[in-house]
Each structure stands twice: as C-alpha cells, then as structure tokens.
UniProtKB/TrEMBL annotation:
InterPro entries: Cyt_c/b562, Cyt_c_II, Cyt_c_prime. It comes from the Bacteria. Pfam families: Cytochrom_C_2 (PF01322). This is Cytochrome c.
Length: 155
C-alpha cells in the first residue's frame, strides 16, 4: 500500500484496491489505457522491424532482399497507424506533454516519418544489396530518433 501511495499518489487504499481489481493491473501505470497499449504495441513492432533490417545493414553478407522488402513494406504500411492513439491527452504513457502542447511539431515528425518509410519501401523493392537500401534505412532511423528526442519521455 505504501508503495502504491508513493508511486501514484492514490489517496485511498480502498479506491486503489477497487481499481486494481477492475482492470486487473496496477492502476497507476496507466497501462490500462487501450490507446497507450495500442501505440506502444505498434512502436514495438517497428522496433522489431528495424532490428531485422539493422542486423542486415550491420552484416551486409546476410542481406536477404525478400525479408528486407517485407519489413520495409510493413513500416510504410503502418506508418500512420499510431497517431490516432494520441488523441487523449490524459493518456500520457511514455509520451511527453509536448505531443499535445506542440501538436503541429508532432504531426510534422509523423509526416516526415511517413515519407522516410515510403522512400525506404521504394528503395527496397529493387534492392539487391545493402548498399541499395542503406541511405534510406538510415533516414528512417534518424526519423524515429528525432521524434523520440522531442516527444518520447522514456527511452
Ligand atoms: C512522430 C513521432 C514518433 C516516431 C516517428 C516514432 N516514434 Fe516511437 N514513440 C513515440 C512516442 C511519443 C512514444 C511513447 C509512446 C507511449 O509510451 O505512450 C514512442 C515509443 C516507442 C517505443 C516504446 C514502446 C513501449 O513499449 O513503451 C519504441 C520501441 C519505439 N517508439 C520505437 C520506434 C521506432 C523503431 C520508430 C521508427 C521506425 C519510431 N518509434 C518512430 C513517437 C514516435
């Protein structure tokens, strides 16, 4: 109980117990918000896709054009999907306040990301080696990083 009070400032232990029982989770983690979970799940799958492609970029002789193409297409196809899950300002999750206070900047990062993933997807279509995709891959990585620097609280 003291732990709950310290970490999330819930005043009543009774309320705490009721909420915990209702959602089956620690109520203070905010992981109860379906929006947070949805966008974090997408981001995680992007992290996985970047990992698969990044391994090939690091070890060019392991380049598998079909697998790379699949991952690049996945990113481009899902590039727009997290943003509708950022509408509820009270569902902060691992996002900074700037997502909402600087909504234009956030949406501009999202646009840049879409462009970067489209470019990577295009480069991947005819690629026969890492060299064909490396610059576009680096651009996508830079785009993830740029948005996280400004808008993601946790890393
Ligand atoms: C336009 C902004 C933006 C772009 C582009 C972006 N992210 Fe994120 N990302 C966020 C924000 C904001 C969060 C925090 C979301 C939350 O926890 O509620 C986040 C969270 C994450 C997380 C943590 C998820 C979790 O389980 O807590 C991972 C992993 C991640 N992003 C990977 C990526 C990768 C990889 C890319 C690029 C392929 C990328 N992101 C592109 C804004 C962005």
């Amino acid at each position: 109980m003291s732990l709950f009070n310290r970490t999330c400032g819930v005043k009543s232990a009774v309320t705490m117990a009721l909420i915990s029982a209702a959602v089956g989770l620690s109520a203070c983690s905010q992981s109860a918000s379906p929006d947070i979970k949805a966008r974090e799940d997408i981001m995680k799958s992007w992290g996985d896709a970047m990992g698969v492609m990044g391994d090939m970029v690091k070890a060019p002789d392991t380049f598998d054009a079909a697998v790379f193409k699949e991952q690049a297409a996945f990113l481009a196809d899902s590039a727009d999907s997290p943003w509708t899950h950022f509408q509820d300002e009270s569902a902060k999750g691992g996002a900074m306040d700037s997502v909402w206070s600087d909504a234009d900047g956030f949406s501009s990062e999202a646009d840049k990301f879409k462009q970067a993933t489209d470019a990577l997807n295009q480069a991947a279509q005819g690629a026969s080696s890492v060299e064909d995709v490396q610059p576009a891959f680096a651009e996508v990585g830079a785009s993830c990083k740029s948005c996280h620097t400004e808008y993601r609280a946790e890393s």
